[in-house]
Amino acid sequence: ARQFTRPLHDLANQYNQLLSAVAGAERVYEVLEEEKEEIDEIHAAPVERVKGNVEFQNVSFSYGRDENTIKNICFQVENGQTVALVGPTGAGKSTIINLLMRFYKPQSGTILIDGKNIQTITRESLRSFYGFVLQDVYLFEGTFRENIRYGKLDATDEEVEEAAKKANAHSFIMKLPNGYDTKLTEDGSGISQGQKQLLSVARAILRNPSILILDEAMSNIDTVTEIKLQEALQRLMQNRTTFVIAHRLNTIQNADQILVVYEGEIAERGTHETLLKKKGLYYQMYKQKENTIVV
Ligand code: ATP
Questions:
Q1: Is 54 helix (H, G, I), strand (E, B) or coil?
Q2: Which of 2, 87, 103, 196 has the smallest C-beta neighbourhood within 10 Å, fewest atoms?
Q3: Is the pLDDT of residue 36 over 90?
Q4: Angle, CA 147 vertex, CA 141 and CA 151 arms, to 5°
Q5: Where do the ABC transporter domain residues begin and end (predicted)?
Q6: Residues with CB under 6 A from ligand 1
């Protein structure tokens, strides 16, 4: 019977995840990677809500049989803190996030949330802890209201508008021909990259996750929208554990911890000031980029 129920169960699971997944990049990823993902352990149990303390203990991981992509990663994050992951392309920043999300299982080491090994938490409840603001914002054909509500499917109209206000998206939506009832096309044509990001922040505010994953865009957003976006992000990140694959200097400067990832290892760690004083890798990257963007 297992053999027959398994695919159905997977399908239902996948559907749930499609509904609950917030970001498009992740959504596509889920579907593509589903088969490769490990299944829940027999003793895995759901967890309702977490504070968002995160710890990596000696985590090593390889995608294949070759050398480890991630080597012996150790760090600890208190709930509410912001952690900036910086480092050159291919260093392993996204892999750290993939492991945190349990898209893959470490070959060795342990990842804990609120002191609980994430392997002991059902995947479905684990995923419910996270919210995203990624570079590629997933939009679908529907109204602006529906697109924001994707962050929390049972949100009322008031909740949707409240979130949009906090995300600095309300004013531009109100200028549209039909306000919140204006239709969006799947590719979001007609709205700017920055406005897409604001919608994504509104969704994340609605979702109210314990752990926020932020993949900063480096795209050209006009200055006014950029300021709105930064302000909205600040609001969203407030008192929330945030992991940010960081490109912007202000995010990095304000982070509680910066982890400099280099060839799968944490080469340096600290705050912006302490790392600059160290005059190591971070300092070099900072100098190289002319004080505007670190990586
Ligand atoms: P970027 O800044 O370019 O996003 P990154 O620091 O996030 O880089 P990762 O995406 O974590 O780096 O990649 C680390 C290494 O693992 C790279 O060599 C990459 O090619 C490899 N890698 C990433 N994803 C996979 C995968 N699904 N299968 C096999 N190898 C992968």
A1: strand
A2: 2
A3: no
A4: 140
A5: 54-288
A6: 63, 69, 87, 89-95, 261
What is the residue whose two structure tokens read 């003793």? 43
pLDDT at 31 over 80: no
CA distances from 174 to 144, 191, 294 (A): 10, 13, 36
Integer Cα distance of 285 and 102 in angstroms: 30
Q: What are the CA-CA distances from residue 15 to residues 34, 151, 245 (Å)?
A: 11, 15, 28
SS3 content of the chain, % helix, strand, coil (to 5): 40, 20, 35
Instruction: Report the percent of the chain where pLDDT is more than 70.
Output: 84
Cα 58 to ligand 1 centre (Å):
19
The span from the CA of 182 to the CA of 95, in Å, is: 38
Q: For residues 140 and 68, what is the distance between their CA atoms, to the nearest angstrom?
A: 37
Measured CA to CA, the distance from residue 255 to residue 248 in angstroms comes to 11
pTM of the shown model: 0.85
Is residue 251 within 8 A of residue 293, CB to CB? The reply is no
Residue 130 sits at the vertex; the CA angle it makes with 124 and 134, to the nearest 5 degrees, is 125
Quickly state the pLDDT bin for 37 (edges 50, 70, 90). Answer: low
**Shortest CA distance to 137 belongs to which of 92, 91, 103, 184?**
184
pLDDT at 11: 39
C-alpha of residue 63 to centroid of ligand 1, in Å: 9
CA distance 224 to 222: 6
Tokens representing 135 are: 């570079």
DSSP-derived secondary structure letter, 214: E
pLDDT: which is higher, 276 or 249: 276
ipTM value > 0.90: yes
